[in-house]
Amino acid sequence: MATITKEPIGQLHEKISVKINKADYLPSFEKSLKEYSKKASIQGFRPGKVPAGLIKKMYGPSLFTDEVLKSVDKELINYLQTEKTEIFAQPLPVETDLAKLDVNNPADYSFDFEIGLKPEFTLADLAKADITGYNIDITDEMINEEVERLQNRYGNMIDKEAVDGGNNVINLTFTEIDADGNVAEEGVKKDNSLLLSYFAEKVQKELNGKKAGDSIHITLGDAFEDKELEFIASDLGLSKDSEADKKKTFQLEITKVSELEKRELNEEFFNQLYPGGEVKTEEEFRAKIKDQIFEYWASQSRNQVQDQVFHQLVDNTTIEFPEAFLRKWLVTQNANPEAGQPAKTEEQIDSEMPTFLNQLKWTLISEKIVKDQNIEVTPDELRAFAQAQLFSYMGGMMPESEEQPWIRDYIDRMMKDRKYVEDAYGRIQSQKVFEWAATQIKPAAKQISAEDFTKMVNEHQHTHHH
Protein backbone atom coordinates (compact mmCIF):
# COMPACT_ATOMS: atom_id res chain seq x y z
CA MET A 1 0.00 0.00 0.00
CA ALA A 2 1.45 3.38 -1.03
CA THR A 3 2.11 6.00 1.63
CA ILE A 4 2.03 9.70 0.83
CA THR A 5 3.44 12.52 2.94
CA LYS A 6 3.71 16.23 2.31
CA GLU A 7 5.66 19.11 3.77
CA PRO A 8 5.64 22.87 3.09
CA ILE A 9 8.79 24.19 1.41
CA GLY A 10 7.74 27.79 0.67
CA GLN A 11 4.76 30.09 0.18
CA LEU A 12 1.91 27.93 -1.24
CA HIS A 13 4.68 25.54 -2.25
CA GLU A 14 4.77 21.93 -0.99
CA LYS A 15 6.77 18.78 -1.47
CA ILE A 16 4.82 15.53 -1.82
CA SER A 17 6.61 12.22 -1.31
CA VAL A 18 5.00 9.10 -2.79
CA LYS A 19 6.37 5.82 -1.41
CA ILE A 20 5.21 2.67 -3.21
CA ASN A 21 5.92 -0.93 -2.32
CA LYS A 22 6.25 -4.01 -4.50
CA ALA A 23 2.57 -4.92 -4.19
CA ASP A 24 1.62 -1.60 -5.86
CA TYR A 25 3.37 -2.27 -9.16
CA LEU A 26 4.51 -5.92 -9.47
CA PRO A 27 1.15 -7.44 -10.54
CA SER A 28 0.74 -4.94 -13.41
CA PHE A 29 4.41 -5.37 -14.41
CA GLU A 30 4.01 -9.16 -14.62
CA LYS A 31 0.78 -8.74 -16.59
CA SER A 32 2.37 -6.39 -19.14
CA LEU A 33 5.36 -8.77 -19.46
CA LYS A 34 2.96 -11.64 -20.33
CA GLU A 35 1.09 -9.49 -22.87
CA TYR A 36 4.38 -8.47 -24.44
CA SER A 37 5.57 -12.07 -24.82
CA LYS A 38 2.32 -12.91 -26.71
CA LYS A 39 2.90 -10.08 -29.21
CA ALA A 40 6.70 -10.03 -29.43
CA SER A 41 8.15 -10.90 -32.83
CA ILE A 42 11.74 -12.15 -32.46
CA GLN A 43 13.70 -13.92 -35.18
CA GLY A 44 13.99 -17.66 -34.61
CA PHE A 45 10.84 -17.92 -32.44
CA ARG A 46 7.22 -18.40 -33.42
CA PRO A 47 4.94 -15.54 -32.21
CA GLY A 48 3.83 -16.23 -28.64
CA LYS A 49 6.56 -18.86 -28.10
CA VAL A 50 9.41 -16.56 -27.02
CA PRO A 51 10.80 -17.76 -23.62
CA ALA A 52 9.71 -15.51 -20.71
CA GLY A 53 13.35 -15.12 -19.54
CA LEU A 54 14.42 -13.70 -22.90
CA ILE A 55 11.49 -11.24 -22.97
CA LYS A 56 12.36 -10.13 -19.41
CA LYS A 57 15.99 -9.65 -20.35
CA MET A 58 15.23 -7.67 -23.51
CA TYR A 59 12.19 -5.60 -22.49
CA GLY A 60 11.97 -6.05 -18.72
CA PRO A 61 13.91 -2.94 -17.60
CA SER A 62 11.86 -0.45 -19.69
CA LEU A 63 8.50 -2.16 -18.89
CA PHE A 64 9.47 -2.23 -15.20
CA THR A 65 10.30 1.51 -15.17
CA ASP A 66 7.02 2.28 -17.01
CA GLU A 67 4.90 0.35 -14.51
CA VAL A 68 6.63 1.88 -11.46
CA LEU A 69 6.13 5.40 -12.84
CA LYS A 70 2.50 4.68 -13.82
CA SER A 71 1.85 3.41 -10.32
CA VAL A 72 3.39 6.54 -8.76
CA ASP A 73 1.35 8.82 -11.06
CA LYS A 74 -1.87 7.01 -10.20
CA GLU A 75 -1.25 7.29 -6.44
CA LEU A 76 -0.35 10.99 -6.73
CA ILE A 77 -3.45 11.86 -8.81
CA ASN A 78 -5.74 9.89 -6.46
CA TYR A 79 -4.23 11.68 -3.47
CA LEU A 80 -4.70 15.17 -4.99
CA GLN A 81 -8.30 14.35 -5.98
CA THR A 82 -9.20 12.85 -2.59
CA GLU A 83 -7.66 15.79 -0.71
CA LYS A 84 -9.33 18.22 -3.18
CA THR A 85 -5.98 20.01 -3.52
CA GLU A 86 -6.24 22.92 -5.98
CA ILE A 87 -2.89 23.22 -7.75
CA PHE A 88 -1.29 25.23 -10.56
CA ALA A 89 -0.22 23.36 -13.68
CA GLN A 90 1.16 19.85 -12.99
CA PRO A 91 3.21 18.48 -10.08
CA LEU A 92 6.91 18.86 -10.93
CA PRO A 93 8.93 15.68 -10.37
CA VAL A 94 12.06 16.23 -8.29
CA GLU A 95 15.06 14.75 -10.16
CA THR A 96 15.09 10.99 -9.49
CA ASP A 97 17.81 8.48 -10.33
CA LEU A 98 15.85 5.96 -12.41
CA ALA A 99 18.93 3.70 -12.48
CA LYS A 100 17.97 2.56 -8.95
CA LEU A 101 14.91 0.77 -10.43
CA ASP A 102 16.16 -2.83 -10.74
CA VAL A 103 13.90 -5.33 -12.54
CA ASN A 104 15.82 -8.23 -10.94
CA ASN A 105 15.52 -6.85 -7.44
CA PRO A 106 12.06 -5.20 -7.02
CA ALA A 107 11.91 -3.00 -3.92
CA ASP A 108 9.98 -0.16 -2.29
CA TYR A 109 10.62 3.15 -4.03
CA SER A 110 10.06 6.77 -3.08
CA PHE A 111 9.47 9.68 -5.48
CA ASP A 112 9.23 13.40 -4.65
CA PHE A 113 7.14 16.06 -6.37
CA GLU A 114 6.72 19.81 -5.91
CA ILE A 115 3.29 21.43 -6.19
CA GLY A 116 2.12 25.06 -6.29
CA LEU A 117 -1.14 25.60 -4.41
CA LYS A 118 -3.89 27.90 -5.63
CA PRO A 119 -4.51 30.64 -3.06
CA GLU A 120 -7.72 31.66 -1.30
CA PHE A 121 -8.59 35.33 -1.93
CA THR A 122 -11.39 37.90 -1.82
CA LEU A 123 -12.48 39.81 -4.93
CA ALA A 124 -12.16 43.59 -5.04
CA ASP A 125 -15.53 45.22 -4.25
CA LEU A 126 -16.96 46.32 -7.61
CA ALA A 127 -19.81 48.25 -5.93
CA LYS A 128 -17.24 50.76 -4.66
CA ALA A 129 -15.37 50.96 -7.97
CA ASP A 130 -14.95 54.34 -9.62
CA ILE A 131 -16.17 53.53 -13.14
CA THR A 132 -17.27 55.87 -15.94
CA GLY A 133 -19.85 54.91 -18.58
CA TYR A 134 -19.28 57.04 -21.70
CA ASN A 135 -22.20 58.25 -23.84
CA ILE A 136 -20.78 59.15 -27.23
CA ASP A 137 -22.33 62.08 -29.11
CA ILE A 138 -23.92 61.01 -32.41
CA THR A 139 -23.62 64.08 -34.67
CA ASP A 140 -25.33 65.00 -37.96
CA GLU A 141 -21.86 65.00 -39.52
CA MET A 142 -21.40 61.31 -38.64
CA ILE A 143 -24.77 60.47 -40.20
CA ASN A 144 -24.00 62.52 -43.35
CA GLU A 145 -20.60 60.83 -43.75
CA GLU A 146 -22.12 57.34 -43.45
CA VAL A 147 -24.93 58.18 -45.92
CA GLU A 148 -22.34 59.46 -48.40
CA ARG A 149 -20.10 56.42 -47.85
CA LEU A 150 -23.02 54.09 -48.66
CA GLN A 151 -24.02 56.18 -51.71
CA ASN A 152 -20.44 55.93 -53.01
CA ARG A 153 -20.02 52.26 -52.14
CA TYR A 154 -23.16 51.27 -54.04
CA GLY A 155 -22.68 53.89 -56.79
CA ASN A 156 -21.86 53.24 -60.44
CA MET A 157 -18.66 54.09 -62.29
CA ILE A 158 -19.35 55.92 -65.55
CA ASP A 159 -16.67 56.37 -68.22
CA LYS A 160 -15.63 59.93 -69.12
CA GLU A 161 -13.92 61.37 -72.17
CA ALA A 162 -11.56 63.66 -70.24
CA VAL A 163 -10.64 64.77 -66.71
CA ASP A 164 -13.06 67.51 -65.60
CA GLY A 165 -13.67 67.44 -61.82
CA GLY A 166 -12.50 66.46 -58.34
CA ASN A 167 -14.76 63.37 -58.27
CA ASN A 168 -13.06 61.90 -61.34
CA VAL A 169 -11.33 58.57 -60.79
CA ILE A 170 -8.18 58.40 -62.91
CA ASN A 171 -6.48 55.08 -63.68
CA LEU A 172 -2.75 55.80 -64.00
CA THR A 173 0.58 54.09 -64.55
CA PHE A 174 3.40 55.54 -62.41
CA THR A 175 6.76 55.06 -64.18
CA GLU A 176 9.93 56.38 -62.51
CA ILE A 177 12.06 58.59 -64.81
CA ASP A 178 15.53 60.17 -64.63
CA ALA A 179 16.51 63.86 -64.95
CA ASP A 180 16.34 63.63 -68.79
CA GLY A 181 12.81 62.16 -68.73
CA ASN A 182 13.98 58.62 -69.67
CA VAL A 183 12.63 55.54 -67.90
CA ALA A 184 14.89 54.93 -64.87
CA GLU A 185 16.76 51.62 -64.86
CA GLU A 186 15.31 49.35 -62.13
CA GLY A 187 12.95 52.20 -61.27
CA VAL A 188 9.47 51.88 -59.79
CA LYS A 189 6.55 51.06 -62.09
CA LYS A 190 3.04 50.69 -60.67
CA ASP A 191 -0.61 51.00 -61.72
CA ASN A 192 -2.98 52.87 -59.45
CA SER A 193 -6.39 54.51 -59.52
CA LEU A 194 -6.80 57.82 -57.70
CA LEU A 195 -9.39 60.54 -57.25
CA LEU A 196 -8.35 63.77 -58.95
CA SER A 197 -8.90 65.54 -55.59
CA TYR A 198 -6.00 63.51 -54.07
CA PHE A 199 -3.48 65.54 -56.09
CA ALA A 200 -2.07 68.95 -55.10
CA GLU A 201 -3.98 71.84 -56.75
CA LYS A 202 -1.21 72.62 -59.26
CA VAL A 203 -1.23 68.99 -60.55
CA GLN A 204 -5.07 68.94 -60.65
CA LYS A 205 -4.97 71.92 -63.04
CA GLU A 206 -2.38 70.15 -65.20
CA LEU A 207 -4.48 66.98 -65.38
CA ASN A 208 -7.69 68.84 -66.23
CA GLY A 209 -8.79 68.16 -69.82
CA LYS A 210 -6.35 65.21 -70.21
CA LYS A 211 -7.63 61.94 -71.77
CA ALA A 212 -6.62 58.27 -71.80
CA GLY A 213 -3.16 58.01 -73.43
CA ASP A 214 -2.02 61.47 -72.24
CA SER A 215 0.78 61.78 -69.69
CA ILE A 216 2.41 64.34 -67.39
CA HIS A 217 5.61 64.41 -65.31
CA ILE A 218 5.54 64.95 -61.52
CA THR A 219 7.93 65.11 -58.56
CA LEU A 220 6.44 62.84 -55.90
CA GLY A 221 6.82 65.19 -52.90
CA ASP A 222 5.23 68.16 -54.74
CA ALA A 223 2.35 66.27 -56.34
CA PHE A 224 0.46 65.33 -53.15
CA GLU A 225 -0.43 66.82 -49.79
CA ASP A 226 0.98 65.04 -46.70
CA LYS A 227 -1.98 62.74 -45.95
CA GLU A 228 -2.26 61.40 -49.52
CA LEU A 229 1.52 61.27 -49.96
CA GLU A 230 1.79 58.73 -47.14
CA PHE A 231 -0.39 56.02 -48.71
CA ILE A 232 0.73 56.72 -52.31
CA ALA A 233 4.44 56.54 -51.37
CA SER A 234 3.78 53.33 -49.42
CA ASP A 235 1.92 51.83 -52.43
CA LEU A 236 4.99 52.58 -54.56
CA GLY A 237 7.24 50.92 -51.96
CA LEU A 238 8.69 54.31 -50.90
CA SER A 239 8.56 56.45 -47.75
CA LYS A 240 7.01 59.90 -47.34
CA ASP A 241 9.73 60.66 -44.75
CA SER A 242 12.62 60.04 -47.14
CA GLU A 243 13.84 63.24 -48.85
CA ALA A 244 15.39 61.14 -51.66
CA ASP A 245 12.04 59.39 -52.30
CA LYS A 246 10.13 62.69 -52.29
CA LYS A 247 12.49 64.03 -55.00
CA LYS A 248 11.86 61.05 -57.32
CA THR A 249 10.20 62.00 -60.61
CA PHE A 250 7.50 59.98 -62.36
CA GLN A 251 5.69 59.91 -65.67
CA LEU A 252 1.95 59.48 -65.05
CA GLU A 253 0.17 57.96 -68.02
CA ILE A 254 -3.62 58.07 -67.94
CA THR A 255 -5.18 54.73 -68.92
CA LYS A 256 -8.84 55.53 -68.10
CA VAL A 257 -11.01 58.36 -66.77
CA SER A 258 -14.27 57.66 -64.97
CA GLU A 259 -16.48 59.16 -62.33
CA LEU A 260 -18.31 57.69 -59.42
CA GLU A 261 -22.00 58.37 -59.75
CA LYS A 262 -23.51 58.35 -56.26
CA ARG A 263 -26.58 56.23 -55.66
CA GLU A 264 -29.78 58.18 -55.41
CA LEU A 265 -31.55 58.14 -52.06
CA ASN A 266 -34.66 56.31 -53.20
CA GLU A 267 -36.76 53.34 -52.12
CA GLU A 268 -34.91 50.92 -54.43
CA PHE A 269 -31.61 51.77 -52.68
CA PHE A 270 -33.15 51.58 -49.18
CA ASN A 271 -34.59 48.15 -50.03
CA GLN A 272 -31.24 46.91 -51.25
CA LEU A 273 -29.62 47.90 -47.94
CA TYR A 274 -32.53 46.87 -45.69
CA PRO A 275 -34.61 44.17 -47.37
CA GLY A 276 -38.03 43.91 -45.76
CA GLY A 277 -39.37 47.33 -46.73
CA GLU A 278 -39.25 48.97 -43.29
CA VAL A 279 -37.26 51.94 -44.71
CA LYS A 280 -39.19 53.94 -47.31
CA THR A 281 -38.15 57.59 -46.92
CA GLU A 282 -34.86 59.47 -46.59
CA GLU A 283 -35.92 60.44 -43.06
CA GLU A 284 -36.39 56.77 -42.06
CA PHE A 285 -33.09 55.91 -43.78
CA ARG A 286 -31.19 58.53 -41.78
CA ALA A 287 -32.91 57.38 -38.57
CA LYS A 288 -31.81 53.80 -39.31
CA ILE A 289 -28.22 54.93 -39.95
CA LYS A 290 -28.30 56.89 -36.68
CA ASP A 291 -29.44 53.76 -34.78
CA GLN A 292 -26.60 51.72 -36.31
CA ILE A 293 -24.00 54.37 -35.44
CA PHE A 294 -25.45 54.55 -31.93
CA GLU A 295 -25.22 50.74 -31.60
CA TYR A 296 -21.60 50.76 -32.77
CA TRP A 297 -20.54 53.41 -30.25
CA ALA A 298 -22.60 51.83 -27.46
CA SER A 299 -20.69 48.56 -28.00
CA GLN A 300 -17.36 50.50 -27.96
CA SER A 301 -18.46 52.13 -24.70
CA ARG A 302 -19.36 48.71 -23.21
CA ASN A 303 -15.90 47.42 -24.17
CA GLN A 304 -14.36 50.41 -22.41
CA VAL A 305 -16.40 49.75 -19.24
CA GLN A 306 -15.28 46.10 -19.38
CA ASP A 307 -11.68 47.32 -19.60
CA GLN A 308 -12.21 49.45 -16.47
CA VAL A 309 -13.80 46.46 -14.67
CA PHE A 310 -10.83 44.28 -15.69
CA HIS A 311 -8.31 46.78 -14.25
CA GLN A 312 -10.43 47.32 -11.14
CA LEU A 313 -10.43 43.58 -10.40
CA VAL A 314 -6.80 42.92 -11.32
CA ASP A 315 -5.35 46.03 -9.64
CA ASN A 316 -7.41 45.80 -6.42
CA THR A 317 -7.66 42.06 -5.75
CA THR A 318 -4.78 40.82 -3.60
CA ILE A 319 -3.57 37.35 -4.58
CA GLU A 320 -0.47 35.60 -3.24
CA PHE A 321 1.32 33.28 -5.68
CA PRO A 322 3.74 30.36 -5.21
CA GLU A 323 6.33 32.30 -7.21
CA ALA A 324 9.24 29.92 -6.52
CA PHE A 325 7.19 26.99 -7.88
CA LEU A 326 5.91 28.97 -10.87
CA ARG A 327 9.45 30.04 -11.79
CA LYS A 328 10.54 26.38 -11.79
CA TRP A 329 7.49 25.46 -13.86
CA LEU A 330 8.21 28.22 -16.42
CA VAL A 331 11.77 26.86 -16.82
CA THR A 332 10.38 23.47 -17.85
CA GLN A 333 7.94 24.99 -20.39
CA ASN A 334 9.06 24.66 -24.03
CA ALA A 335 12.35 23.10 -22.89
CA ASN A 336 13.15 20.32 -25.33
CA PRO A 337 16.92 19.77 -25.53
CA GLU A 338 16.54 17.00 -28.14
CA ALA A 339 14.79 19.43 -30.51
CA GLY A 340 17.41 22.08 -29.78
CA GLN A 341 15.12 24.12 -27.49
CA PRO A 342 17.04 24.90 -24.30
CA ALA A 343 15.33 25.74 -21.00
CA LYS A 344 14.61 29.43 -20.39
CA THR A 345 17.31 31.51 -18.72
CA GLU A 346 16.82 33.33 -15.39
CA GLU A 347 16.79 36.65 -17.33
CA GLN A 348 14.00 35.41 -19.62
CA ILE A 349 11.98 34.25 -16.60
CA ASP A 350 12.52 37.63 -14.87
CA SER A 351 11.20 39.53 -17.87
CA GLU A 352 8.22 37.18 -18.43
CA MET A 353 7.16 36.89 -14.78
CA PRO A 354 5.14 40.14 -14.31
CA THR A 355 3.00 39.57 -17.45
CA PHE A 356 2.62 35.89 -16.62
CA LEU A 357 1.45 36.60 -13.04
CA ASN A 358 -0.98 39.27 -14.29
CA GLN A 359 -2.54 36.81 -16.76
CA LEU A 360 -2.66 34.15 -14.05
CA LYS A 361 -4.33 36.62 -11.70
CA TRP A 362 -7.10 37.32 -14.23
CA THR A 363 -7.54 33.57 -14.82
CA LEU A 364 -8.03 32.98 -11.07
CA ILE A 365 -10.43 35.94 -10.75
CA SER A 366 -12.51 34.66 -13.72
CA GLU A 367 -12.53 31.10 -12.31
CA LYS A 368 -13.73 32.40 -8.94
CA ILE A 369 -16.58 34.44 -10.50
CA VAL A 370 -17.60 31.46 -12.68
CA LYS A 371 -17.66 29.17 -9.63
CA ASP A 372 -19.29 31.59 -7.16
CA GLN A 373 -21.97 32.74 -9.64
CA ASN A 374 -22.59 29.27 -11.13
CA ILE A 375 -21.88 30.56 -14.64
CA GLU A 376 -22.49 27.88 -17.25
CA VAL A 377 -22.20 27.69 -21.03
CA THR A 378 -24.83 25.46 -22.68
CA PRO A 379 -24.50 23.51 -25.95
CA ASP A 380 -27.30 25.71 -27.40
CA GLU A 381 -25.26 28.84 -26.62
CA LEU A 382 -22.25 27.33 -28.40
CA ARG A 383 -24.39 26.59 -31.47
CA ALA A 384 -25.87 30.11 -31.42
CA PHE A 385 -22.33 31.55 -31.19
CA ALA A 386 -21.19 29.52 -34.25
CA GLN A 387 -24.29 30.64 -36.18
CA ALA A 388 -23.78 34.32 -35.30
CA GLN A 389 -20.16 34.05 -36.40
CA LEU A 390 -21.18 32.46 -39.71
CA PHE A 391 -23.63 35.30 -40.40
CA SER A 392 -21.00 37.91 -39.55
CA TYR A 393 -18.66 36.27 -42.13
CA MET A 394 -21.48 36.71 -44.64
CA GLY A 395 -21.51 40.44 -43.97
CA GLY A 396 -24.43 40.24 -41.55
CA MET A 397 -26.76 38.86 -44.26
CA MET A 398 -29.33 36.66 -42.55
CA PRO A 399 -30.54 33.75 -44.70
CA GLU A 400 -34.30 33.37 -45.28
CA SER A 401 -34.44 30.54 -42.76
CA GLU A 402 -31.96 29.70 -40.05
CA GLU A 403 -33.00 26.07 -40.32
CA GLN A 404 -31.46 25.60 -43.75
CA PRO A 405 -29.58 22.25 -43.91
CA TRP A 406 -26.24 23.81 -44.95
CA ILE A 407 -26.31 26.08 -41.88
CA ARG A 408 -27.03 23.11 -39.61
CA ASP A 409 -24.22 21.13 -41.31
CA TYR A 410 -21.77 24.00 -40.81
CA ILE A 411 -22.65 24.29 -37.10
CA ASP A 412 -22.49 20.48 -36.60
CA ARG A 413 -19.04 20.48 -38.18
CA MET A 414 -17.85 23.31 -35.90
CA MET A 415 -19.19 21.51 -32.82
CA LYS A 416 -16.89 18.55 -33.65
CA ASP A 417 -13.83 20.80 -33.82
CA ARG A 418 -12.45 20.63 -30.28
CA LYS A 419 -10.21 23.69 -30.62
CA TYR A 420 -13.10 25.79 -31.98
CA VAL A 421 -15.46 24.67 -29.20
CA GLU A 422 -12.85 25.43 -26.49
CA ASP A 423 -12.25 28.89 -27.95
CA ALA A 424 -16.00 29.63 -28.29
CA TYR A 425 -16.63 28.30 -24.75
CA GLY A 426 -13.92 30.59 -23.34
CA ARG A 427 -15.28 33.65 -25.16
CA ILE A 428 -18.90 33.08 -24.08
CA GLN A 429 -17.82 32.38 -20.50
CA SER A 430 -15.69 35.54 -20.46
CA GLN A 431 -18.63 37.57 -21.78
CA LYS A 432 -20.84 36.17 -18.99
CA VAL A 433 -18.21 37.10 -16.38
CA PHE A 434 -18.35 40.72 -17.61
CA GLU A 435 -22.17 40.64 -17.79
CA TRP A 436 -22.24 39.59 -14.12
CA ALA A 437 -19.69 42.32 -13.26
CA ALA A 438 -21.92 44.90 -15.03
CA THR A 439 -24.68 44.13 -12.50
CA GLN A 440 -22.30 44.96 -9.61
CA ILE A 441 -21.08 48.39 -10.74
CA LYS A 442 -22.60 51.86 -10.61
CA PRO A 443 -20.94 53.75 -13.49
CA ALA A 444 -21.04 57.55 -13.57
CA ALA A 445 -22.39 58.70 -16.96
CA LYS A 446 -20.26 61.09 -19.02
CA GLN A 447 -21.01 62.68 -22.40
CA ILE A 448 -18.03 62.66 -24.80
CA SER A 449 -17.30 63.24 -28.50
CA ALA A 450 -16.35 60.23 -30.65
CA GLU A 451 -12.98 61.89 -31.36
CA ASP A 452 -12.13 62.37 -27.66
CA PHE A 453 -13.35 58.87 -26.81
CA THR A 454 -11.17 57.28 -29.54
CA LYS A 455 -8.16 59.33 -28.45
CA MET A 456 -8.66 58.26 -24.82
CA VAL A 457 -8.95 54.55 -25.75
CA ASN A 458 -5.82 54.72 -27.97
CA GLU A 459 -3.79 56.43 -25.25
CA HIS A 460 -4.91 53.82 -22.72
CA GLN A 461 -3.95 50.93 -25.02
CA HIS A 462 -0.58 52.54 -25.73
CA THR A 463 0.10 52.94 -21.98
CA HIS A 464 -0.81 49.34 -21.17
CA HIS A 465 0.93 47.67 -24.09
CA HIS A 466 4.30 49.42 -23.73
Describe the structure.
- By secondary structure, this protein is α+β, with helices and mostly antiparallel strands.
- The protein folds into three domains: 3-116, Trigger factor ribosome-binding domain (Alpha-Beta Plaits); 156-261, Chitinase A, domain 3, CATH 3.10.50; 278-318 and 373-465, no CATH class.
- The chain has 15 helices and eleven strands.
Q: Any key phrases for this structure?
A:
3 domains, single chain, 4-stranded antiparallel sheet, 11 strands, Chitinase A, domain 3, elongated, about 475 residues, Alpha-Beta Plaits
Topology of helices and strands:
Elements: E1 3-10, E2 13-20, H1 22-39, H2 52-82, E3 92-93, E4 109-116, E5 132-136, H3 140-153, E6 156-159, E7 168-177, E8 189-195, H4 201-207, E9 215-219, H5 220-223, H6 226-235, H7 243-246, E10 249-261, H8 267-273, H9 282-316, H10 323-332, H11 346-372, H12 379-393, H13 405-415, H14 418-438, E11 444-448, H15 450-465
Parallel strand pairs: 5-11
Antiparallel strand pairs: 1-2, 2-4, 3-4, 6-10, 7-8, 7-10, 9-10
Helix pairs in contact: 1-2, 3-9, 12-13, 12-14
> Rounded to an integer, what's the Rg over CA atoms?
35 Å
β-strand percent reads 15-25%
- Please state the average pLDDT score: 92
Regarding quaternary structure, how should these chains be classified?
A: single chain
Q: What share of the residues lie within helices? A: 40-55%
What order do the SSEs take from the amino end to the carboxyl end, as H and E?
Answer: EEHHEEEHEEEHEHHHEHHHHHHHEH
| Uncertain residue ranges | none
Number of alpha- plus pi-helical segments: 15
First-last Cα distance:
55 Å
For the secondary structure, the number of strands is 11
Structural domain tally:
3
Main sheet overview: 5 strands, antiparallel
Structural category = alpha+beta
Shape: elongated
